[in-house]
C-alpha cells in the first residue's frame, strides 16, 4: 500500500494565486460558470474560487452524503480540512474512491 502524503503546499499556493486574481480572471470564471444548475461536485485542488459562482454553494455541506446521494457508493475516504493563506475559510474535504451504484 502506498504511503499517505499530507502536504498542503500546493493548496496554499493556489489560494495565494486565486486571491491575487484581477477583474479579467474573475470575469472569465463568471462567464465559464454562467448558467450552471443542479448539484455541483468540485473535484480538484485549490481554495475554491469558483464556489461563489455556483449559487447556493455551501462549503460546509457533507460531501460524503452528497456523493452518496448522487448515486455513488464510497469505497474508502479520508476527511480533512484545508486551511489556506487567503481569506477563504477552512472547509471540510474528503479524498477517496467512490463507485457508481
What is the topology?
Blueprint: H1 9-19, H2 23-33, H3 51-54, H4 63-69, E1 72-82, E2 91-100
Report on this structure:
By secondary structure, this protein is of the alpha+beta class. It has one domain. It is built from 4 helices and 2 strands. A two-stranded antiparallel ribbon has the order 1-2. The longest helix has 11 residues, at 9-19. The chain starts with 8 loop residues before the first helix and ends with a strand.
Short description:
This protein has about 100 residues and is an alpha+beta fold. The chain has one domain. Helix content is about 35%, strand content about 20%.
Order of SSEs, N→C? HHHHEE
Task: Assign an overall shape.
Answer: flat
Number of separate domains: 1
Counting H and I runs of at least 4 residues, what is the number of helices?
Answer: 4
Mean residue pLDDT = 75
User: How many strand segments?
Assistant: 2
Give the percentage of residues in beta strands.
15-25%
CA-based gyration radius: 15 Å
The helical percent reads: 25-40%
Structural class: alpha+beta
- N→C terminal distance: 25 Å
Largest sheet features: 2 strands, antiparallel
Q: Point out poorly predicted stretches.
A: none
Strand line-up across the major sheet: 1-2
Amino acid at each position: 500500500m502506498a504511503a499517505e502524503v499530507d502536504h498542503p503546499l500546493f493548496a496554499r499556493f493556489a489560494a495565494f494565486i486565486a486571491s491575487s486574481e484581477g477583474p479579467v480572471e474573475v470575469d472569465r470564471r463568471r462567464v465559464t460558470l454562467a448558467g450552471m444548475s443542479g448539484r455541483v461536485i468540485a473535484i480538484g485542488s485549490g481554495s475554491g474560487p469558483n464556489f461563489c459562482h455556483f449559487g447556493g454553494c455551501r462549503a460546509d455541506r457533507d460531501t460524503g452524503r452528497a456523493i452518496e446521494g448522487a448515486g455513488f457508493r464510497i469505497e474508502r475516504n479520508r476527511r480533512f480540512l484545508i486551511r489556506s493563506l487567503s481569506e477563504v475559510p477552512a472547509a471540510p474535504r474528503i479524498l477517496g474512491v467512490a463507485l457508481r451504484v
